[in-house]
Amino acid sequence: MKFLLVFDFDHTIIDENSDTWIVKCAPGRKLPNGLRNSYQPGHWTEYMGRVFVYLGDNGVKEDEMKRTMTTIPFTAGMLDLLGFIGENKELFDCIIVSDSNTVFIDWILKGADFHKVFDEVFTNPAAFSSTGYLTVQHFHAHQCAKCPKNLCKRKVLKEFLDKQLERGVSYTQIVYIGDGGNDLCPVMFLKKNDIAMPRQGYTLEKKISQLAQSLSPVQCSVLVWSSAMDIMSYLKLLTKE
């Protein structure tokens, strides 16, 4: 009996978007209009690349960025939930699939001492250049028309499950916890026995209910959460079975 927990990061584990939070480091805590308006749908990673150049040009250093990022609040109940998962690791494998980046997620999880809860983190690779600028790259290339150019979460999940099967690991159930539009693609990959947990009032919940209304519902069960305590209640039920 082993369960796979798949977490999104922004607005799921943390209660904010890590990429927009970093703007607090910019002069006057805002970006110039030209930069802000340069975002093109599906090309968020490229946009963030330009934001990081702007911060670097304005002398924003790594330690200041790190200090700012570790002030992001976790979602209500999330610290308790991660503590519970950490205490029950023999039952749960736990991964993050996120459109954030390795540097931000690493800082935030290590800052709160929760990095050991997660077996793997799949996100856009980021690093500081020799000149001290943060740079970010696409996670992978894919053919999915539904997803942003840099990341198809379904592809990540499928490849992870295939790799685990090769190691002889299969899961009783997959629990997918997320909030955003880019979480719909992996949720549609889940099977009847799996469960999707969209955050209440966010895009993923709305998209799942639109599918149900158009009579093409997702295969898996759906359980909406507003606090991570709702997720913990469900996991406690699983552990009792």
Automatic annotation (TrEMBL):
Mg(2+) binds at D8, D10, D179. GO terms for molecular function: metal ion binding; phosphatase activity. This is PHOP2 phosphatase. The keyword Lipid metabolism does not apply. Its cofactor is Mg(2+). Belongs to the HAD-like hydrolase superfamily. PHOSPHO family. Substrate binds at D19, D99. Pfam families: Put_Phosphatase. The active site is at D8 (nucleophile), D10 (proton donor). The keyword Magnesium applies.
